[in-house]
Structure formats: structure tokens, C-alpha cells
Design goal:
alpha+beta, Nucleoside Triphosphate Pyrophosphohydrolase, four-stranded mixed β-sheet, 2 helices
Length: about 150
Amino acid sequence: MEFTDYDTRLAAYAVVVDDQDRVLLALWNEAAEPQWTMPGGGVDLEEQAAEGAVRELLEETGYEVELCRLLGVDSYVIPPSRRHLATSRPMKAVRVVYEARVVGGELTRELDGTTDEARWIPLDEVANLPRVGLVDIALGLWRASR
């Protein structure tokens, strides 16, 4: 299939781990049951991926962050039947994952967005959480880069 035959969504996320071995996660509210995800999301048309990650982190968590490094890029295909809008076109989701650190702000929750809460979660408790696959992918990239 040619690139003109499907939609593409570029998103950027950040792994933020503090000095107490806790990771910053956001509770995504668009699934049937809320699930934890990495903070981040869709990159606006005029933004670079890094700019989108910084903006999304602020919106979803209340924290100003500094990106430390690129951890990797993950992509997957969503068939038309699983898309949130009625379409016959599949979508390729491209997710850019950074490592970041908090440089300002305070923990808060997003208002009227796709997440209901942001929380610091101990790394050793993440495996027991209801979570999207991106959490494991992003933490795997982070662990592999250390």
C-alpha cells in the first residue's frame, strides 16, 4: 500500500523517571476502561516532534520538561474497523519517544482532554496496572538506553 492510501498520525511522548524510581504516567480516558499511558500525544501540524512532546507534557501533567534524548520511534497500523472515526482508510501511528526531566511546574490534571489524571507510579508497580502497550514499549526503550 502506498503512503497516499492511508492516514498517518505523528505523536510524541516522554519517559520521565524521578530519583525515587517512579515514572510519570497519565490516565487515558478514551478506551472503554481507563488505562495508563505515557504522557504525550499528537503533534500539531506546525510543530516539530520535540515541541509537541514538551507541549503535551505540560497539558497533561502540569510539568515543564526538558527533553534529554531521543529514545526511539515506534509505529503500528490501526485498521479502519478500530479507528475512532468512520473511515475506510487504515492509519499508521508513528510514536516518537523521548527521555525527559522536570524543570518546572507542578503536578496537575488535564482539563477537557484525553487524560483524567497524571501520577507518579513506582516502576516496580507498572506491570500490575491497566495500561496501553506504549508504556511497555517506552519503558523498554528507556531501560535499553541506560
